[in-house]
Amino acid sequence: MNRHLSLLILAVLLPCLAMALTLSVKQDGSGDYTAIQAALDAANPGDTVLVYPGRYYENLNMQTSNISLMSLEGTTGDPSFIDSTIIDGSYSIGGIMVSQYKTNIQIRGFSITNGIGAGVSLGASSESIVTNCKIFGRTSTIGGGINIGGATVTLVGVKIYDNYAMQLGGGIYASEPTGYHTNIIFDPINRCSIYNNRAGAGQDIYIQHANSNLYMPLDIFSVAEPTTYYAAYLSDNPLVNNYQINFDILNAHHQEIESDLYVSTIGNDTNDGLSPATALKTIHEAIYRIAADSLNQNTVHILPGEYSRTDNDQVFPIAMKGWVIVQGSGIDSTTVIGEPHPEMGENTSTWIFAFAARATTFLSDMSITARNTLSYCVVMNSGPNHSSMNFSNLRIHDISAHESYTGSYNSISLIATSERVSTWNNVVIENIGNYEGSIVQIQAGISEDGTISAFKGSFSNCIFRNATSTYTSSSVWARPLVGIVCDEEVSFDNCEFSNLTMHDDNSIAVAIGSIQYPQQQNHFTFRNCLFTNNTSPGGDVGGIASITSVNNPRIDIINCTFAGNQGNAYTLKTNGEVNIVNSIFYNDTPYQIKVEPMDGDPNEHTNLTIDHALVKDGINGILPYPVPGNTIDFLPSSFAGYPFFAAGDDIHDPLYYSLSALSPCINAGTPDTLGLFLPPYDLAGNWRVWNGQIDMGCFEFGAPPVANDDPLALIPPALSLNAYPNPFSAFTTILLNTPVAGEGRPESKRKSSLCIYNIKGQKVKNLSFVASPSGEITSWDGRNEEGIACANGIYLLQLQIDGENKGIRKVTLIK
Predict the structure, then answer these.
(1) 131: β partners
(2) Of 145, 146, 157, 135, nearest to 79 (Cα)?
(3) Domain range list for the chain
(4) For the CA atoms of 459, 460, 466, 470, what is the dihedral angle to 10 degrees?
(5) CATH classification (class only), 720-813
């Protein structure tokens, strides 16, 4: 070969034969570079960027494949270099980011701490190995420690701890952008540790779009037996593939506490939290420490005061743990104030409470509000497949988006399934600012057995009022302000829906619907409910309220008032076997009631029965759906007319729609209330059945209030009503003593009765006897009117003398 040809071949091959370089980074200037990013930018495939000890205030972007980034730990094996080589993001956003499609990336031997954003972010289709790093003290929206987006990563000896994610995955968050695949491999020899991270959901791990089971051998994890509170692993289609994490944990970071815990505005998170005197400071910390036990529930007691970031360093979202009761000291005593994270930027949302997947949660006795919102506020948010929720004595109020925010969101966005009963009692949601979403949105989820289901349970004494949806579109419907997907048996008792305003046509202010599966007949019941002063433009399909279901539902609307609503279409849309009893419809809408066509099966028909009801314009106020088989039965007990409300100065006062003495609705209800299962009291807290008769609508004219506004009021001192034994199993003896009345005259031979209700307010039996000064005795064997044994639980004995309610005694049936 001649000399010229040899030189030509050498010139071509030299770039390929060049040896990989090691680029040194030293802060004292004695290396190749003083900044890590400068070395990364200069590196070629195959190079190693070797970082000498120091604290580097940088946020790094690795944009070249086949690059190794390591401290001296990688060349010496000395672990002390991990602690002395620090990538600190204190002054900017980011940590170490591996760009999309970059492969054969190695990151080794660093402490990665402080700053906003994940400690390590891995872009789609990238391939990386992270070895012997500590990631701690990071703050992010999702993925405080590591954020994996459709990437392949091997984790070797990595410690991820004390990180915070405002929403999901305090330690690790992983997801899959469309068209990409996430693969996470944990080294079983040099094991990783993940512990003591915090997030709205998935304290340590939150992985979406799981495509296979994940083997996770770890040295340390937060607890020995993780629940979804700590590790959420969500399959795309759990009906087909319900993938799981298979943990192999050597050590637990902490042991959850099997005891009630206390939180105080003057507490300290270094305390044990076991008493008010040694209370913790943050609600989040108390829930994190307490043990979840479905058979022996523990309670986090929140002592009186205001709880916020500003006042006492509260951590938001407050992550709820399944089977733990979180209880304030009362609506007027305990207030939780959501505020945005001060370091997260002006576009960051505020979350107040977050619920883990498959959790049964309990929250009560407090007010919840927000302030200083930079974009928008989510009061409650649940993970997919949330099981059930139990709320009582809550006031959620004065929540609004920042004036510059124009997007769509839901103030309360929850998932519920029917595997367990949910209960809402005395929940007030009011004064929610203008925005484009729902104040309450409860969607269906997937139960543990893989079936699709939705909310099953009850809403009692709940109020949804004073909210406006500003969303408008010529092609897309606006979300309802109150949207609840229901399943099986759902009841609404003594609830108010008022002053809800829609701006979009073809939209609905209140939508109560259902899912299609399983194919049982759903039963939705509304008793003593008020729908008033709601507004919807209407359009072709929009209106005020929709109460519908699939599969020929049974829908009972009993002693409800629909009045003062305004729209261009209808007030109520409904379908199935619909019974409207003792109710009032008087609204400024072309139609009061619209019959909705049944979906799917042409053999299913709507049968609407109007009984003892006032409907503006009578049967002409009902818009039928004229298909064979549909029926509208407007019974002679019902009529058109003007209800003569009590009115007053404030049309937004619910009592504006109580009855005046001129109303034709007084004593016009059905004479037989058996089977209606009405609560003992009306919407105003007055006795529901008065003088042996019942009115139309949700208010009873002239009835006195239940003592102390409590349906469980004690018997007045002038009377004595006792039951023994109590609790009882076979039967309980009921003894009534009455005083001497007037001028020494005994109240003898007065007609008395005892109505027995279950805790839901459903009447189960009526007992009659004659009371006398010497006392009358009767008994109850725990059976209903049909002689069927009642279920275990609390029952209410409501005493009436000459048609006048005298009070209630509780008894407990235990078999």
Answers:
(1) 108, 156
(2) 157
(3) 20-252, 720-813
(4) 10
(5) mainly beta
Q: What is the CA radius of gyration of the chain?
A: 32
**Is pLDDT of 9 > 90?**
no
Order of strands, sheet of 214-221, starting from the edge strand that comes earlier in the sequence? 54-56, 85-88, 111-113, 134-136, 159-161, 192-195, 214-221, 245-252
Which carries the bigger pLDDT value, residue 553 or residue 720?
A: 553
Average pLDDT over residues 710-734: 61
Instruction: Give start and end residues of each alpha helix (H) in 69-118.
Output: 73-76, 80-84
In whole angstroms, give the CA distance from residue 581 to residue 614. Answer: 9
Beta carbons within 8 Å of 632's beta carbon, 6+ residues apart:
595, 608, 610, 619, 622, 624
Residue 711 has pLDDT above 80, yes or no: no
C-beta separation of 655 from 705 below 8 A: no
pLDDT in the model for residue 16: 43
What's the residue count for the chain?
A: 815
DSSP string, 291-346: PP-SSS--EEEE-SEEE-HHHH---SSEEE-TT-EEE-S-TTTEEEEE---TTS-T
Query: Is 485:450 a contact under the CB 8 Å cutoff?
Result: no
The pLDDT score that the predictor gives to residue 724 is 65
- Cα of first residue to Cα of last residue in the chain, in angstroms, is 104
Among candidate residues 348, 369, 673, the one with its CA nearest the CA of residue 528: 673
Distance of CA 254 to the CA centre of its chain: 28
Tell me, what's the pLDDT at 792? 76
Edge to edge, what strands does the sheet with 139-142 contain?
A: 139-142, 164-168, 198-201
Q: Which two tokens stand for residue 229?
A: 């509170």
Residue 8 has pLDDT above 60, yes or no: no
Q: Which residues contact 71 (CB under 8 A, 6 or more apart)?
A: 50, 51, 52, 53, 81, 82, 84, 85, 108, 109, 110
Write the pLDDT tens digit of every residue in 335-367. Answer: 999 998 887 766 778 999 999 877 889 999 999
- Residue 752, burial from CB neighbour count under 10 angstroms (0-12, 13-18, 19+): buried
Q: Kindly report the CA angle at 152 between 147 and 154, in degrees rounded to 5?
A: 85
Q: Where are the alpha helices (DSSP H) in 18-116?
A: 36-42, 73-76, 80-84
3-state helix, strand, coil in the chain (%, to 5): 5, 45, 50
Does position 61 have pLDDT exceeding 60, yes or no? yes
Q: Looking up tokens 């299962």, which residue turns up?
A: 677
Mean pLDDT of 784-798: 80
Please list, in sequence order, all residues whose beta carbon lies within 8 angstroms of the beta carbon of residue 125, skipping any fewer than 6 positions away: 100, 101, 150, 151, 180
Order of all β-strands in the sheet with 720-724: 720-724, 732-737, 776-780
User: Would you say 549 and 576 are in contact if contact means Cβ atoms under 8 Å apart?
Assistant: yes
pLDDT at 739: 52
User: Which tokens belong to 604?
Assistant: 């299913």
Percent of the chain scored above 90 by pLDDT? 65
Position with higher pLDDT, 46 vs 675 = 46
pLDDT tens column, 480-536: 999 999 999 999 999 999 999 999 998 999 999 998 776 788 999 999 999 999 999
